[in-house]
Amino acid sequence: MGTEREVLLEVKNLHVTFGKGRKAFEAVKGVDFSVYKGETFGIVGESGSGKTTIGRAIMRIHPTSDGEIFYCGERINGKISKELDDKVIQEIQMIFQDPMASLNERAKVDYIVSEGLRNIKNGLSEKEIQEKVAQALADVGLLPEFASRFPHEFSGGQRQRIGIARALIMEPKCIIADEPISALDVSIRAQVLNLLSDLQKKKGITYIFIAHDLSVMKYFTDRIAVVHKGQIVELAETKELIEHACHPYTRALLSAIPMPDPEYEKKKKLLIYDPEMHEYDENPPAWNEVRDKHFVLANDAEIEAWT
């Protein structure tokens, strides 16, 4: 992934806290990463790890309690100008996990897909908006006549395509895909992933792909950040991470990937991660580069043992 690549998005020491005082809960604790233009950056972790919160903080859905988020070199968290806010809304879009819950059941597809455009790009005629809706639907493999139907008339896979069309119509530079296939049937998942991959090639879109499942990440991402309890514990290029995982949490996630081999599955040993295993009281962990562009959160003794 060389250093010459252009950084589109940079997250520095990000903290997100919910609630106040004694009820405060820190969901994200000092996360750092950069996303290069045109890549697919994966964020993986189990439910409650804080991965979705990171995505929503970038989208400005959740306010940040500390740290900075830079998009194209401009800080986009906290108070920003109306112009920059409009730019972020247009250029960073989100595809949500549940295609049923994220679409307005009472609105026709035409309105759902064009709503963002109507809110931001004023000055477009109705005819131009309809043309853009038809093009966005065509881009995701849906017929133009689908525009006059309601979401409940579609299958889960088609509904997720409508969600993707809604993001595409804004001509975004970056799409945050939050578990975009976990609510879909297995047979449909590959279709949606192939569609996202084709769109990336055609339009040069950068993806931040959030999932709990490393088996999907394996085929779809360029780099992966592994998140546990609000912290990134390991970050590397995908092939490197799969072949040379260091952190016990990453290894536990990898051990859960099912293999299409019954004999292997019978003998397979699932690894269970226990956060108590680390002796961090006297020797706290730090962010270390253990191999080329392969980073892990560990103390000196662990680095010696793991590498």
- In angstroms, what separates the terminal alpha carbons? 22 Å
Largest sheet: 8 strands, mixed
Outline type: globular
Q: So what's the CATH class of the largest domain? A: Alpha Beta
CATH superfamily of the largest domain: P-loop containing nucleotide triphosphate hydrolases
Written as H for each helix and E for each strand, in order along the chain, the element string is EEEHEEHEHHHEHEHEEHHHEEH
Give the helix proportion (percent range): 25-40%
Report the CATH topology name of the largest domain.
Answer: Rossmann fold
Radius of gyration based on Cα positions:
21 Å
Instruction: Supply the helix-strand structural class.
Output: alpha/beta
Kindly state the number of beta strands: 12
In order across it, which strands form the biggest sheet? 6-7-8-3-9-10-12-11
Number of helical elements: 11
Assign the CATH architecture of the largest domain. Answer: 3-Layer(aba) Sandwich
Provide a descriptive summary of the structure in words.
The protein has 307 residues and is α/β, with parallel strands linked by helices. It folds into 2 domains: 7-229, Rossmann fold (3-Layer(aba) Sandwich), CATH 3.40.50; 245-307, no CATH class. The protein has 11 helices and 12 strands. The strands form 2 sheets. An 8-stranded mixed β-sheet has the order 6-7-8-3-9-10-12-11, with helices on both faces. The chain has a 4-stranded antiparallel β-sheet with strand order 2-1-4-5, with helices on one face. It is globular, with a radius of gyration of 21 Å.
